[in-house]
Specification:
Blueprint: H1 3-30, H2 32-36, H3 39-49, H4 53-70, H5 72-81, H6 83-102, H7 109-139, H8 159-183, H9 186-218, H10 224-243, H11 247-269, E1 272-274, E2 284-285, H12 293-320
Antiparallel strand pairs: 1-2
Helix pairs in contact: 1-4, 1-7, 1-8, 1-11, 4-5, 4-12, 6-7, 7-8, 7-11, 8-9, 8-11, 9-10, 9-11, 10-11
Length: 341
């Protein structure tokens, strides 16, 4: 394995970490009106992700930075061609961060309701658009000989891409409901548990259709059938254990499903990083989109030093804030109240 292949795999790992961790964040945000219901219930939901949501977003920054450094041609084509959807995702993430921090600054119900709505909307938008973006990367987009995206916005809205958005939406809703079933008690737990069961089944159905479509239409690597099987086992296991109220295993299997899905996407791409539908000769590949050997060597040393530190800190933060929360834990005044173990 050369360094370009290594960084292609590492970027896939970084996206896996982001989708597993930020996925339940998005799910929690989308479920505020359904599972939160009351003012204290919504505060419970915010407090479950309060200590970790910003750390989870580090995985996105690292994945984007790694792509820029290791595969600058890929980064340039991707971010110019997908400019509008990626801009919408960025704006949603900014609004979501501001809303989480500002909703408790003024003790006024209308103020909180507006920021709550902002959290919900800014969780729905990336949950759909990430699936659309990854589906388009796999399907391929119009790229010319200079590596420039030549299509328009509506080129990104194919049935395959839109179904990809439905898949990520369904998985994140299921992931968020299962996470809340692990992190809450009382009335919030009961509502989360009730929602997790149909949500996980919806993820199985949507995921199965999209994964088979991807494998049959876009993958030229036979081993990706194994990734598809892993994703299927994960989704079915999550649905099974949700129905059995064994939410620790349900969360684990949902994470396995996301791992399998990312393996399927990146495995189907390789050796391309961005296929061209204009002419296969114009496709960006691991070889023609990579940085210099020296750059990749430096990046590898930085990753070897910093990655264990980041993982250790994030694992510690999850351990410290592992306690279940309920509406009874929420004080009368509105504020973020993180409960340690």
């Amino acid at each position: 394995m050369n360094l370009a292949d290594f960084w292609f795999i590492l970027i896939a790992v970084l996206w896996t970490g982001y989708l597993v961790l930020e996925g339940f964040d998005f799910g929690v945000g989308m479920l505020m009106p359904i599972v939160g219901k009351t003012s204290k219930g919504k505060r419970v939901l915010i407090n479950t992700i309060g200590p970790v949501w910003d750390g989870n977003e580090v995985w996105l920054l690292t994945a984007g930075g790694a792509t820029f450094a290791a595969f600058p041609e890929w980064y340039a084509t991707l971010f110019s061609g997908f400019y509008l959807p990626l801009l919408l995702i960025l704006l949603a993430l900014i609004v979501r961060a501001v809303a989480i921090e500002y909703r408790s600054k003024i003790n006024d119900e209308n103020w909180r309701n507006r920021w709550n709505l902002a959290i919900v909307v800014s969780s729905w938008i990336p949950s759909i658009l990430w699936g659309v973006a990854f589906a388009n990367i796999v399907r391929g987009v119009p790229i010319d000989a200079e590596g420039t995206y030549t299509g328009g916005f509506f080129n990104l809205l194919s049935p395959f891409a839109l179904l990809g958005g439905v898949v990520t939406l369904a998985i994140f809703l299921s992931h968020g409901a299962i996470f809340l079933s692990l992190k809450t008690s009382g009335a919030v737990f009961e509502r989360a548990k009730a929602f997790a069961k149909p949500a996980s089944m919806a993820a199985v159905v949507a995921g199965a259709v999209w994964a088979l479509w991807l494998q049959l239409a876009y993958s030229e690597n036979a081993w990706t059938w194994g990734a598809l099987l892993l994703a299927a086992v994960g989704l079915i296991g999550a649905a099974w254990f949700s129905r059995a109220d064994t939410f620790g295993l349900a969360f684990t299997f949902n994470a396995v499903a996301i791992v399998g899905a990312v393996m399927l996407i990146f495995g189907s791409l390789y050796p391309d990083v961005m296929p061209s539908t204009t002419d296969a000769a114009f496709s960006l590949t691991v070889d023609n989109a990579r940085s210099s050997h020296t750059t990749l060597v430096v990046l590898t040393w930085v990753a070897a030093i910093m990655t264990p530190i980041v993982l250790a800190y994030q694992a510690w933060s999850y351990w410290v804030f592992k306690r279940r929360l309920s509406e009874e834990h929420m004080p009368e005044h509105n504020e973020l109240t993180f409960h340690k173990n």
